[in-house]
Amino acid sequence: MQMKVSEYIAAFLHAQKIEHVFEVAGGMITHLLDAIYQLGKTNIISVHHEQAASFAADAYGRITGKPGVALATSGPGATNLLTGIASCYFDSSPAVFITGQVNTYEQKGARKIRQLGFQETDIISMVSPVIKKCFRVESAEQVESVMNEAYECAISGRPGPVLIDLPMNIQRENMVVSHLDTIVRKIVVTDSLMDQINLLSNHVEKAKRPLILLGGGIRCANAEADVLKLIDTLKIPVVTSLLALDAIPFEHPLRVGFIGTYGNRWANFAIGAADLLIVIGSRLDVRQTGADVESFSKNKIVFHVDCDEGEINNRVKNCISIVADAKFFLEHANLQLASHQFPVQASWLEEIDVWKCKWPDINELKDFPGINPNFFMHSLSQSSKEAVGYVADVGNHQMWAAQSLEIHANQMFMTSAGMGAMGFALPAAIGASLAYGKKPVVVIVGDGAFQMNIQELQTVVRNRIPLKIIVVNNNCLGMIRQFQDSYFEGRYQSTYWGYTAPNFAEIATAYGISAKTLSTMDEISDAMHWLWDKSDEPALLHVMVSSQMNVYPKIAFGRPISEMEPFCLPVGIEST
Asked: Which CATH architecture has domain 193-358?
């Protein structure tokens, strides 16, 4: 079978059941766009900045398990993808990025010049540190094998992004196609699971204070149902990292809470007191453990399950290593332990419950005036059961959401964790809603982050995407402002001084989105009714909070995970 390269790529995406691709039009991808349009099997979602396309692809990949696909032209189009590519890489999101490149005869090659063709840019050299694999296409004969290898690489092992740089003249050449098969994920397999699971079982039976820590690897492996089955078998309480807030429903009796730098106080206490910690799909970075890594693992046995061997015994040492895909491990553990009867850890659960009752999240900021953001997050989630989930941006609002959202069964939570990219939430929520068939998604974003990709409100309107956008406006860059309080004696350069935010309700209205401003606690109930009055339409709720509102608790940097601000002071300088 013979077809043009651009036609083959369109057919390939359809064969993999990719429903949407995200892009900003440019000269070097016009052949691709025309071929996808003419085939008519994949929706082209035109956004207003390539970074938004990459964030939307990130979200689409995380939810579907199929690579999110973003297209960009050469030069600035390609370089604008970089932040989103890195976000996919650090958060293990499968994605295929296709960049148009200038014609092969316009490329500088070995010439000692900066550029030959207009917008010619060596995107592969720029992106290679933050990507699983790059492909520089030099002939039409390579395209079929490149597409197959790239797609398989993106979804297999530890998922992540790949990039294909495709010159414009090759896009319009003819090629011979041998097959168009659906590509399946290859998983990481370990040979000694039976012995390791038996060892884990023995430690569970002896432990007095066992704890499970779930990470983002659960969703990466599509293992949500498998992990709940193991939790119910082991009867062990569960804490989660930021990327695993949705791995166990809020109402589950063994759910403890969110751990880490800004974790729930009682959940961090539980980590500190545990004598056995079973880590599944979490890389145990500094945001989870705090800087005092030695105290994190002190007086406890740590089992660490991860598909990436390099992440085990990296920061937290002396872990019992299980190198395996999370789903593969969980399926074997569930099968092997099905007949075991593990004891309910009643006294341990009661101890955790005492901490939770003593340190409720809504009391951490009780002395601040105005809207209590933790209380607001509880109210928001109690009213948002129609939503398929939440996408949070980066900043104080992100941590208030992580501490206090009530994420129910069949709801997802997503954020940019490893990259920590402000501007993520709005375009990512577009990708998420489309992945769920245009179901409503709640966007939680701060005033600073919202201004970074605010132009995508037009994409929301044009595509009639039912996002419920919560702009938490403290009129500053609050997380860094809190950092300046801790280390710079309250000198607020560029966070409060020299920074302003507009009236976001008025901006939303200008785009044609219904909007409302919320300023007091008494207005929350009515605002929630308003927000969901028309669940199939976008709406924006502008929530005003105090500029001096901090995120508490917060691990006092350099101290153990259970020693948290404002009651303990840091002993070193963090990176926020």
From this structure: 3-Layer(aba) Sandwich (3.40)
